[in-house]
Amino acid sequence: MCGVFQVSHHPPISSLFVTNRRVGFNISGTILAKSKYYGNSLSAMMLGSIRIVLLARGETYTVTLPYANCKGIMIGTLSMEYGGQVKIESNRTAYVCTIDFKLKPFLGGVMNVVCGAIKLGKETLTQINGTWDGEITVTTQNGKKSVLWAPTKEVIKQRLPRYEIPLDAQGEWESKKLWLKVSEAIARDDQTAATAEKSILEEAQRARAKTSPHHKPRFFRLDPLSKNYEYLYADYRPWDNNNDVKQVEFDFIIRTKSKHGTFTRSPAPIRANRLSRDRSDDSDSTVASRRRRRSKRRTLFCEEDHLQQLQDTLDRSVQALQRIEGRVESLENVLGKRILLIFLLVTLLQSLVLTLFFKRS
């Protein structure tokens, strides 16, 4: 079961959560999308990492992502491929795996080449070579070579079929439904209609930003320390074969059905009325006990409201810091360009002065 949501529009951040507790893993991640234009090529970079948790082992593996590169925009054949380095690290061991996605050179070479190694400190234990869309082999220290991955016909047949939620069952803010008219215009090759529909969506978004309160993701919450968005209903308990039956999902909330009921991880503290109801069976009916329960109820409500206000304040502070960080980066870029321009002007003036000097001499 999985869920992927865009948790921020400016900057564009998406978060995901994938779980299969019966098999024994949870996968989560927060990705910031950025792009760079180089003239003849364009790179779409996925900044962030994916965390793979093996529930029974208590191990967490952090995986970075490659970038997508499109080249041949102005000169050459238009092509797309992956580039950059992927790094896999564990929180329990010192083993590190690095995989380099090689871009095809301008002359010769092949596409989709990967190479890497598994290391323990500075010692290389295993070499990895191949193509990510073909066969990948591993070679150990003693020279033994084996196939790690090969997309054979049998493997392709095991691919899970793609399932999409019908449009009439999707919410109003889901991407496919929200951008349906834009997608249809692009499919018709109608650039004018696509631009017009896109402008309508963007203007509506700007209007909401001016009048609506700060957007709060429904299923994810920002961790101010790690700057990652965490799924509110994530369950990291190892699978219990004696009690757990299956995982179910409804309205993007993932629950575990067990022999003794359905378990849902609560994203918020237990409410005061629930506490008072649970304790009422064992309490007496005296006036003093009722007063104590009412006092505790008011205290719990106040504490919960205070925690919620604190969380909202932290969210706003983090977003303000992110905006300041973006402005500082833009100022640094402007200053860098100005310094480069001044340097070029000084170099040009110097060359002119030297030319005049040599002519006179």
From TrEMBL:
Superkingdom per UniProt: Eukaryota
GO MF annotation list: cholesterol binding
Pfam families: Oxysterol_BP (PF01237)
GO cellular component, one term: cytosol
Coiled coil: 307-334
Keywords: Coiled coil, Membrane, Transmembrane, Transmembrane helix
Chain ranges passing through the membrane: 339-358
Keyword Iron appears in the UniProt entry: no
Region Disordered, residue ranges: 262-291
Keyword Membrane included in the entry's annotation: yes
Matches recorded under InterPro entries: OSBP_sf, Oxysterol-bd
Entry-linked PANTHER family: OXYSTEROL-BINDING PROTEIN (PTHR10972:SF102), OXYSTEROL-BINDING PROTEIN-RELATED (PTHR10972)
Family assignment from sequence similarity: Belongs to the OSBP family.
Protein name: Oxysterol-binding protein
